[in-house]
Specification:
With 246 residues, the protein is mainly α. 82% of the residues lie in helices and 2% in strands. It is built from ten helices and two strands; from the N terminus they run H-H-H-E-H-H-E-H-H-H-H-H. It has a two-stranded parallel sheet with strand order 1-2. Helix 7 packs parallel to helix 10.
Length: 246
């Protein structure tokens, strides 16, 4: 019985150690981001300010709102800065259960996942957020003067940037899952119609607007990324079959 309990306790100790390292990296990254949060805030608000009517401004209505914004930006920035450490700790914790070849694929894909997250967040910032903010501000602009709360703007931006960063992981996940035998290109191709529906559902969930244009701006990249995932899955499947035949 002790032989069965010991591995479980060792896994829990290892998990706690990885979580502590992750928490330290996140705290350190958040501290660095907090130091420069005003510059980051100015950058994030460029699109929102450009969409404001003449003489319009972004406001905060509660004493603690601006402090909360600073904390959210710091945590999100800390997450981005700590992402390499977080991904590495997750990989190191998972790899003992993988075969040597699977570990090699995971280590190769690790830096690519970070680049994909940054690419997704950049896409959201450059392509998705400006029209979304512009639509929301102009939707009722002829009836009432918009008083845009800074907390609301930052919540919207962080949510969109985070989700787009995750969505851009689809091709790499398809490649890795094919390599370890969980999925095949044929399976992904069969599920294409469901992926298209899921893309528009996610577009409706992620975007806070009700117009189809902004939802399509989210759905189309998901569909393209899914197709890219099928392509990478085929490459991975061919390589896997070649290695298995040797």
């Amino acid at each position: 019985m002790n032989d069965q309990e010991e591995p479980i306790s060792q896994h829990l100790i290892e998990l706690r150690r990885r979580l502590i390292i992750t928490a330290i990296a996140l705290a350190f990254g958040s501290l660095i981001t907090f130091i420069f949060f005003r510059s980051i805030l100015d950058l994030m608000l460029i699109g929102a300010k450009a969409s404001l009517p003449e003489n319009g401004n972004i406001v905060y209505t509660e004493l603690t709102e601006f402090v909360g914004v600073a904390m959210k930006i710091s945590l999100f920035g800390g997450l981005v800065l700590a992402l390499p450490v977080i991904m590495y700790q997750a990989v190191v914790f998972v790899t003992p259960g993988l075969r040597p070849k699977e570990r090699r694929y995971l280590y190769i894909l690790l830096p690519l996942t970070i680049l994909s997250f940054i690419a997704g967040a950049t896409f959201g910032f450059k392509i998705l957020i400006p029209p979304a903010v512009g639509f929301l501000i102009s939707f009722g602009g002829e009836i009432a003067t918009p008083m845009i709360r800074i907390g609301n703007v930052i919540n919207l931006m962080i949510t969109l940037l985070f989700w787009m960063g995750l969505i851009f992981q689809l091709p790499l996940l398809a490649f890795f899952f094919t390599k370890i035998g969980i999925v095949t290109p044929k399976t992904l191709s069969r599920q294409r119609r469901y992926a298209v529906v899921a893309a528009f559902v996610l577009g409706a969930i992620i975007t806070p607007t009700f117009d189809p244009i902004n939802q399509t701006l989210v759905a189309l990249p998901i569909i393209v990324l899914y197709e890219a995932g099928i392509l990478l899955s085929r490459i991975a499947y061919r390589g896997k079959k070649t290695q298995d035949s040797k």
